[in-house]
Amino acid sequence: MNNVAGLFIYICHSAAMDNLFSNEPFAIACPKCKKEIIKPLNWFKKDIVSCPFCKGIVHTRKFRAKLEAAEKTSAQFRKKL
């Protein structure tokens, strides 16, 4: 299961929470050094972040768009409950 699918399932199972897990740890691989970066989700909501290991630039725009789509879907799902 990829990170986005796992995130969506996690959001749907925790629909009662507001601010959608902004402090929950989430992992993504650095595109430069390939090490796993584990940070709170709100850390990934910035446009550009630096890898804590190699200081390489990690563009988060695409990831953030998928996160926002998952949040929107979760909000729609909660309205139906």
Brief synopsis:
This protein is α+β, with helices and mostly antiparallel strands and 81 residues long. The chain has 2 helices and 4 strands.
Describe the structure.
The protein is of the alpha+beta class and 81 residues long. The protein has one domain (3-80). 38% of the residues lie in helices and 20% in strands. The chain is built from two helices and four strands. The chain has helices spanning 3-13, 61-80, and strands at 25-29, 36-40, 48-50, 57-59. Strands 1-2 form a two-stranded antiparallel sheet. A two-stranded antiparallel sheet has the order 3-4. α1 (3-13) runs parallel beside α2. The model is unreliable at 13-18 (pLDDT under 50).
**What is Rg?**
13 Å
- Main β-sheet description: 2 strands, antiparallel
Low-pLDDT windows of residues: 13-18
Which structural class fits the helix and strand makeup? Answer: alpha+beta
End-to-end distance: 26 Å
Question: Helical residue percent?
Answer: 25-40%
Beta-strand residue percentage: 15-25%
| Strand order of the biggest β-sheet | 1-2
Shape: elongated
Count of strand segments: 4
Give the helices and strands as they follow along the chain.
HEEEEH
Helical region count? 2
Q: How many domains comprise the coordinates?
A: 1
